[in-house]
Design brief:
heterodimer; A: alpha/beta; seven-stranded mixed β-sheet; three-stranded antiparallel β-sheet; 11 helices; B: alpha+beta; four-stranded mixed β-sheet; 26% strand
Chain lengths: 393, 115
C-alpha cells in the first residue's frame, strides 16, 4: 500500500494521490497490460480485453453503454476535444460558443482565440455568474438563442469553489434552442452522482481517485459529434476521440471507480461535514471571506480569501507546518493572473486558499488534517499580514 | 453570504473620473495584496466622501479593489485604463496601468478596527 508522506496533511487532492487500491492495480497492470492492444499476439489480446473491461466498468458506473465511453489524455484535453467535436459538424451554421464565465480555461482560452479570429462567425458568449459562481439562467437562456451559437459548455460543479451549477435547467434551455451542451464533470465525478442532462459529458479519473492520464468523453448516440481530420484507422479501439490511454492507467482508473462508487454516499457525507467545519473556522478569522454556495455545493471543495494577505506566503507558511493546500491567488499562478473564477464572482482573489479534500480511502487521517489546518490558520494569516505590514493597525 | 446578482465586474461609471480625485495613490509596480493594503491604510483616517484614485499595474487589483470596497463598505466608482510616457526615474516608468476610484463612506475598516 502506498503511504502518504508521513506527518503531512494533504488538503489539495485535485490531482491525487491515487486511491490505494488503484495504486496496487496500476503496479500489477504494468506487468499484465503493457502490450499494444492493436497487436495480434496473446499479451496484446490481453491488453485489448483489459481496455474493454475498464471501459465497461466506467460505462456501467455512468449508466451509459461502453460504446459511448471515449478517452482523452486528461480532463482538460477531453474538454477541448468535446467542444471541438460539437463545433465541427455544425460549422456551416457558425462556430459560436456559450460558456459560463467560470468554465475551465480549456473551454474559454480556445474560444476567445476563435472569437478573435472570426468575431461574427465564432462569438464566445460568456454568461455571468452570481456571487456564489452559479450561472445566471436567464442570461444563459438568452445566450443560447444568439445567432451563430452552435454549442454550449457548462460545468457540473465548479472545482475551485464547489458550487453546483443548475445543469438540468441550463440543458433544457439549450435544448429548446437546439444547442448541444458539453457538461464538464472533471471536479465532480466520483464525489456526487453524475449529471443526467448533457449532450457530451467530460471527466477526469483523478476526481474519483484514479490516475492522471485518463480523461473521459461520453458521447450519447443522439449527439452529433465528430473531430475534423481523417478517421483513425484504429477507430474500433481508440474511438471518435482517437485516443486510448496506456492500459495500466485505464485499469487503475476502473479500479478506482469501483472502489469510490461503493463508498460514495458515506464518503461524501463525511466530507460535506468537514467542509462545513472549514467554512465556519475560516470565516471566523478576521476579514476572511469564504466563497461559494454554502449548501448547494460539492462535498469536498472549499475556498476562502483573507484580506491583506498574500496567497503564496500563506501556502508556504502552511507547507512549513506540514499542510498542503491550493490557492487561486495571482502570485501562486504561473501566469500571475488571479483565478478567473474568483474574479467572475466578484470575490477577493488575494490571500486565497483552496482545499480539495481527498477521499477517506486515500487519506484516512483527513479529519485530523482539517483540525491541523484550522488550528494553524489564524496564526498563519496574522503572520503573513504582519510580514506585509498589515497586521498591526 | 446572500446571493447577489451577477458579479462579473463592476460597470465603470462615466462620471466617476470627471472631477479630480481628492487623493491619488500611486501603487504602480506593487504586487498584490500591496495595492489594497496601501488603499486601506490611506482610507483609515480619511473623511467620508473622500475620493481616492489608485494607480495600479497589478492584474489582481481589477478584482480586489472592488472586492475590498464591498467587504469594507466603501463605494467603488469605477476604473479607467491609462497609458503614460516614461519619465526619467523609475517612479514614472511609462506604460499601461489602471486608475481605480473609490469613495470613502466610513472610516476604513482594517483588521484591527474589525475587532
Amino acid at each position: 500500500m502506498v503511504e502518504p508522506p508521513s506527518g503531512r496533511a494533504l488538503l489539495d487532492a485535485a490531482s491525487g494521490p491515487l486511491h490505494p487500491a488503484a495504486a496496487q492495480t496500476l503496479a500489477a497492470a504494468v506487468d499484465a497490460g503493457w502490450a499494444d492492444p492493436r497487436r495480434l499476439y496473446a499479451e496484446a489480446r490481453t491488453a485489448r480485453r483489459l481496455v474493454d473491461q475498464s471501459r465497461e466498468v466506467i460505462a456501467d458506473g455512468l449508466g451509459v453503454r461502453p460504446s459511448q465511453v471515449c478517452f482523452a489524455p486528461d480532463g482538460p484535453s477531453a474538454l477541448r476535444l468535446a467542444v471541438d467535436g460539437l463545433l465541427h459538424p455544425a460549422r456551416r451554421r457558425g462556430a459560436g460558443l456559450v460558456a459560463s464565465a467560470v468554465e475551465h480555461s480549456s473551454v474559454l482560452v480556445p474560444a476567445r482565440a476563435r472569437q478573435a479570429a472570426a468575431p461574427d462567425d465564432a462569438p464566445l458568449v460568456e454568461v455571468p455568474v452570481s456571487a456564489t459562481a452559479a450561472v445566471d439562467l436567464d442570461a444563459w437562456a438568452a445566450a443560447v438563442r444568439r445567432p451563430a451559437v452552435v454549442a454550449a459548455a457548462l460545468q457540473h460543479a465548479n472545482g475551485e469553489v464547489g458550487t453546483l451549477q443548475p445543469v438540468s435547467r441550463a440543458w433544457e434551455a439549450a435544448r429548446a434552442a437546439e444547442v448541444p451542451v458539453v457538461v464538464d464533470a472533471q471536479a465532480s465525478l466520483g464525489r456526487v452522482d453524475p449529471p443526467d442532462a448533457y449532450d457530451v459529458l467530460v471527466g477526469d479519473a483523478r476526481s474519483w481517485g484514479g490516475p492522471g492520464g485518463v480523461g473521459l468523453v461520453v458521447l450519447p448516440e443522439r449527439t452529433r459529434w465528430a473531430l475534423p481530420g481523417v478517421t483513425d484507422p484504429d477507430e474500433a479501439l481508440t474511438g471518435p476521440t482517437r485516443h486510448t490511454p496506456w492500459v495500466p492507467l485505464l485499469l487503475a482508473a476502473a479500479e478506482a471507480w469501483q472502489q469510490t462508487a461503493a463508498t460514495r454516499a458515506a464518503d461524501s457525507a463525511e466530507a460535506y461535514a468537514l467542509v462545513e467545519r472549514i467554512r465556519e473556522g475560516a470565516g471566523a478569522v478576521r476579514d476572511v471571506e469564504v466563497v461559494g454556495d454554502p449548501g448547494d455545493r460539492l462535498p469536498h471543495v472549499v475556498t476562502f480569501s483573507a484580506l491583506y494577505a498574500d496567497g503564496e506566503a500563506m501556502v508556504q507558511a502552511l507547507d512549513r507546518r506540514g499542510i498542503a493546500v491550493g490557492s487561486g491567488s495571482a502570485c501562486t499562478s504561473s501566469t500571475l493572473e488571479p483565478s478567473h473564477v474568483l474574479a467572475a464572482m466578484g470575490a477577493l482573489t488575494h490571500g486565497n486558499l483552496r482545499v480539495t479534500l481527498p477521499l477517506a480511502a486515500v487519506a484516512p487521517d483527513r479529519a485530523r488534517s482539517v483540525d491541523r489546518l484550522l488550528e494553524a490558520l489564524p496564526e498563519v494569516v496574522l503572520e503573513v499580514r504582519r510580514q506585509l505590514g498589515a497586521g498591526t493597525w | 453570504m446572500s446571493d447577489r446578482p451577477a458579479a462579473s465586474g463592476p460597470t465603470p461609471q462615466p462620471n466617476a473620473f470627471a472631477d479630480p480625485a481628492d487623493v491619488v495613490l500611486d501603487a504602480r509596480g506593487l504586487r498584490c495584496p500591496l495595492p489594497v493594503i496601501r488603499l486601506a491604510e490611506r482610507t483609515r483616517s480619511a473623511e467620508p466622501g473622500t475620493i481616492v484614485e489608485v494607480l495600479a499595474t497589478d492584474p489582481a487589483a481589477r478584482a480586489d479593489i472592488p472586492a475590498w470596497c464591498r467587504m469594507t463598505g466603501q463605494d467603488y466608482l469605477g476604473q479607467q485604463e491609462r497609458e503614460t510616457v516614461a519619465g526619467s526615474d523609475e517612479q514614472s516608468a511609462g506604460g499601461r496601468h489602471t486608475a481605480y476610484r473609490v469613495r470613502v463612506t466610513a472610516p476604513g475598516r482594517t483588521p484591527a478596527a474589525a475587532g
